[in-house]
Amino acid sequence: MKLNLLTAISPVDGRYRNKTEVLAAYFSEFALMKYRVRVEVEYFIALCELPLPQLKHIQPDTYETLRSIYQNFTEADAERIKDIENITNHDVKAVEYYLKEQFDKSEILKNRKEFIHFGLTSQDI
Fold it and tell me: Which InterPro entries match (predicted)?
């Protein structure tokens, strides 16, 4: 069934969509993924700032690169997370694996990707 005003799950996305559309940036599944990515990235940065011995070589100029992952988050990124979730059957684990893919693109970060989600549970995210 195609999503439209009559097939929406609730009147919030249907009848009242013209009044609530701005909320999608905060409460949609896309937004949930983006904010989960943000929390994971900022937590990783916090671990770097402790500094954990294994992360002490990550310099603050790398933080901008890390933050760009969520600042430039797109629908294609969200779709990639959904693809991963279809395999893992776990939404937060899919975010973690997505971030590991992003870390693999960086020589500095790829050997430290196991610190994504380090010491956390899914409820923390």
Answer: Fumarase/histidase_N, L-Aspartase-like, PurB_bact
Sole residue written with tokens 């992360």 = 55
Domain boundaries, the chain: 29-124
CATH class of 29-124: mainly alpha
Transcribe 15-56 into DSSP letters: TTHHHHGGGHHHHSHHHHHHHHHHHHHHHHHHHHHTT-GGGT
How many Å apart are CA 120 and CA 117, to the nearest integer? 5
Tokens of 122: 């899914």
- pLDDT (average), residues 87-110: 97
CB 97 within 8 A of CB 84: yes
Whether residue 60 is preceded by a cis peptide bond, meaning omega within 30 degrees of 0, is no
SS3 category, 81: helix
d(CA 112, CA 76): 25
pLDDT of residue 36: 98
Instruction: Output the pTM of the full model.
Output: 0.90
Angle at 68 between CA 79 and CA 89, to 5 degrees: 30
